[in-house]
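lol forgot to send this yesterday, sorry. struct tokens for the thing we talked abt
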């Protein structure tokens, strides 16, 4: 079998749980944060640096790798693992969200999504069958069904149409998949409508994927609304299969998601804010580029064991940021990725110890969200 999952510990007060996913390239302990390597690289970090953070799995992007360098080239290189020199598990998304993000450059039909390349304007058609062809060539351990994501806010009828098309496309992905060593996850849609989310969760669950993803969240809606949708969806997805909340990775959303039974998270936030001179901590975001840190010789987080915090001060990193030195992006990315992975490990430890509910309360007492 391409993937197996077993629950290890359950929280008695919430839906939080720990577990283990087994893949052809190794095991993943859950809950897990997956660093995003959009174009077969986690930005500003070498694979060795990513591995040193404790990352057990990374995510790569089907749309971007299809556009450049092309899935046929990656396949010729021996697959994504060899191409990017990453020997642990990889997940590829289907490209659905990226096509959605193209806005006016794309047109959705029953066949698939017709779009103009963001690189050169060339015309392409991404169908469920094409998404499977690309992902099978890339060779990731976990691949995603092609879905239609809707914006927020969106009219009810529009969301119904996208959801039903997502379900039909999911079946086409199942029919098109031929590789036995890859696990195909289905994706729940339904916008911000509880009845549609309920219908989609039941439909996707009935299709018996080895894992299930929750898509179409964190697209601009209030966080309370996202949590409301998770409250609806998670109990309807099979307990014996991993649940993946797509594109979500801030500390507060991770712990809220875990409390609602989510096992897997990914987000570009960690490396994106690093490139803007920002660090993530359990107390909130630290804008290192600010003048207040010019003579602050303490680490970003004195409790953090990452390479950056063990060796460099806020003042030095601020200097790098202000001087537009590439090293600033690397050091902040290392910190943000490892801080997130360590945070999720702490969550896991507290679930196993039976203290998750109190840990979650304590976290929110100390956490300050900064934009």
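and heres what i got for the seq, position by position
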């Amino acid at each position: 079998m391409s993937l197996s999952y077993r629950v290890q510990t359950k929280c008695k007060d919430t839906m939080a749980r720990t577990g283990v996913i087994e893949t052809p390239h190794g095991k993943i302990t859950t809950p897990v944060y997956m660093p995003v390597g959009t174009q077969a690289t986690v930005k500003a970090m070498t694979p060795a640096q990513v591995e040193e953070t404790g990352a057990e799995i990374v995510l790569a992007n089907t749309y971007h790798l299809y556009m450049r360098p092309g899935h046929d080239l990656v396949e010729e290189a021996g697959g994504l693992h060899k191409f990017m020199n990453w020997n642990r598990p990889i997940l590829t998304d289907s490209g659905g969200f990226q096509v959605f993000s193209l806005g006016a450059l794309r047109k959705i039909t029953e066949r698939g999504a017709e779009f103009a390349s963001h690189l050169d304007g060339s015309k392409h058609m991404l169908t469920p069958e094409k998404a499977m062809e690309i992902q099978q060539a890339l060779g990731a351990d976990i691949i995603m069904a092609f879905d239609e994501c809707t914006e927020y806010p969106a009219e009810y009828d529009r969301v119904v149409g996208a959801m039903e098309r997502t379900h039909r496309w999911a079946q086409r992905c199942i029919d098109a998949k031929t590789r036995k060593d890859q696990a195909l996850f289905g994706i729940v849609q339904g916008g911000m409508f509880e009845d549609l989310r309920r219908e989609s969760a039941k439909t996707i669950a009935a299709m018996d994927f080895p894992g299930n993803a929750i898509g179409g969240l964190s697209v601009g809606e209030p966080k309370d609304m996202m949590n409301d949708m998770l409250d609806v969806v998670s109990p309807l997805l099979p307990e014996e299969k991993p649940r993946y909340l797509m594109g979500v990775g801030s500390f507060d959303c991770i712990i809220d998601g875990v409390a609602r039974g989510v096992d897997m998270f990914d987000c570009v936030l960690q490396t994106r804010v690093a490139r803007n001179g920002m660090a993530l901590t359990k107390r909130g975001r630290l804008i290192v580029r600010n003048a207040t840190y010019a003579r602050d010789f303490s680490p970003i987080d004195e409790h953090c064991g990452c390479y950056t915090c063990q060796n460099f001060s806020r003042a030095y990193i601020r200097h790098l940021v202000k001087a537009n030195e590439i090293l600033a992006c690397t050091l902040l990315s290392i910190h943000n990725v490892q801080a997130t992975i360590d945070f999720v490990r702490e969550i896991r430890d507290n679930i196993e110890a039976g203290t998750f509910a109190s840990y979650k309360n304590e976290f929110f007492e100390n956490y300050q969200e900064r934009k």
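The first strand starts at residue 4 and ends at 10. anyway ping me if u want another try
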